[in-house]
Amino acid sequence: MLKAIAIILGNGFEIALIVSVIIIWLQHTQNGQYSRWVFGGAGFAGIVGWVVLYSLKWSGPKKESFTGWVMGISILMEILFLIWMLKESKKRLEAEEVRGFQLNSKTVKIIIVLLTAAFLTVLPFMRILLFPSSIFIQTYSVVNTELVLKFTGGLIGLIFCFIFGLSFLRSTRTLPIRSSLAGSVVLLAALILNELFTVVQILFARGVFPLTPFVMKILVPIINNMDKYLYVLLSASLLWTVMVLWNFIRRKEAVSEDWNPAVQRKFKASKRNNRRWLATIAGLMVIIPTLLGVEAVLANKTIELSPAEPVTPDINHQIIIPRASIDDRNLHRFGYTAADGTIVRFIIIRKSETMYGIGFDACKICGSSGYYQKNGKIICRKCDVIMNIATIGFEGGCNPIPLAYQMDQGSLVIASSDLEKETVTFQQEDLFNK
Fold first, then answer.
1. Looking only at Cα atoms, what is the longest distance across the chain?
2. CB contact at 8 A, 388 and 141
3. Which of 67, 96, 126, 235 is surrounded by the fewest CB atoms within 10 Å?
4. From CA 89, how far away is CA 188, in angstroms rounded?
5. CA 90/CA 75 separation, integer angstroms
6. What is the DSSP annotation of 290-358?
7. CB of 184 within 8 A of CB of 21?
């Protein structure tokens, strides 16, 4: 359940923060009429994400390319949006016309707002859209307690994201433009740096840039800490929250006896609502990091896979596995060294008196994270889904990628050529799920 909350909450928080900050800035610079295009861009990102995930073949290289292109274009849109934001803010602060780069065309403004929102939210949207596949897939049974808990966790994550976005919008609308500008710049800087490092990593991995020892010394620490990106966003939102609280405390507004009763009631109601929204966002800035932090601590307790037993093909390029060595109804893991040096793992478990479940130690959803056995159940190490042992060897869900085999005189025979076909699964680094 906690893992489900973290998956939705982490990505939904990113979307809610990006959408909220863009809308806040538009409102503070009297461009609030374009706010609906922010939602339009986010909705467009959700549709594109769904099409890419479920209508196109989503292999490792395509995933990496799509991620790189999206982040590269996002950097350009963020820089353009940042320039526009600085110019508009200066114009509002100085109450004068600013010369130089200006956007006077309504159509151009709409396009920039829509595309900025779309490119900045498409990847987190896609990670959320993967949630039904990575969490709700139940190959163990149709409905069980685990499924209900994970569904509840996902729903809780969505509720928290919605409340955060709404309270963030309502509580920060009272900020002066200088504070709003500072928070927006911090957020955009964090987004640009994360995307820039990812694009550079992809370019080095593709061989576009030479990967020298000096470059490795610089890249390795950055890559190893890119999973801290979410905490940078949390820090940015915390900065906004502190500025809002400080601004609220410093405000000396009070009810005037000269106001008529209706105006006094309206003022009191406004102040009471602001206090409630502030309390909500302050509470969420404690709850959200706590939930994500606890889940991260638990997730770091990685379950180690049992060692893969090395196998080598015979002169006929076939791997022979004697039935007697795998008839104990336990999970057996094997490792084949492909021609390019990649270790391709596959698993075997006896399902019945005459049938065996055979597949790669990877699935099309979770990649090469692998499976482990606990209390007689086969479980995906990445998403914790329990496999229905009877379906191992068949396509679908989080099941292991099927591996063809034949029975021959009491042994299982696997062609090495079939193992060579899946080397990419055990080579790719999953940039998309970072």
1. 100
2. yes
3. 96
4. 15
5. 22
6. HHHHHHHHHHTSPPPPPPPEEE---TTSEEEEEGGGSTTSS-EEEEEE-TTS-EEEEEEEE-SSS-EEE
7. yes
Q: Distance (Å, rounded) from C-alpha 49 to C-alpha 335?
A: 35
DSSP for 16-83, please give it. Answer: HHHHHHHHHHHHHTT-GGGHHHHHHHHHHHHHHHHHHHHHS---HHHHHHHHHHHHHHHHHHHHHHHH
Task: Write the CA distances from 279 to 20, 248, 283, integer angstroms.
Answer: 18, 12, 6
**How far apart are alpha carbons 67 and 60 in whole angstroms?**
11
Say if residues 97 and 91 touch (Cβ distance below 8 Å): yes
Altogether, the residues listed in the chain come to a count of 434
Measured distance CA(252)–CA(254) in Å, rounded: 6
Burial track 208-239 (b if 16+ CB lie within 10 A, e otherwise)? eeeeeeeeeeebeeebeeeeebbebbbebbbe
Amino acid residing at 22: I
CA distance 285 to 282: 5
Q: What is the mean pLDDT of each run of 10 residues along the chain (434 residues)?
A: 79 89 84 89 90 68 78 90 80 55 70 90 86 54 63 84 88 77 82 85 75 72 73 83 81 71 80 85 88 75 80 89 86 90 89 83 80 84 76 78 85 89 72 40
399 CB-contact burial (10 Å; exposed 0-12 / middle 13-18 / buried 19+): buried
Helix, strand, coil % over all residues of the chain, rounded to 5: 60, 10, 30
Q: Please, are residues 386 and 146 in contact by the beta-carbon 8 Å criterion?
A: yes
Q: Tell me the C-alpha distance between 176 and 179, whole Å.
A: 6
- The CA distance from 119 to 15, in Å, is 11
Are 88 and 29 in contact by the 8 Å Cβ rule? The answer is: yes
Alpha-carbon span 288 to 257, nearest angstrom: 42
pLDDT of residue 139: 46
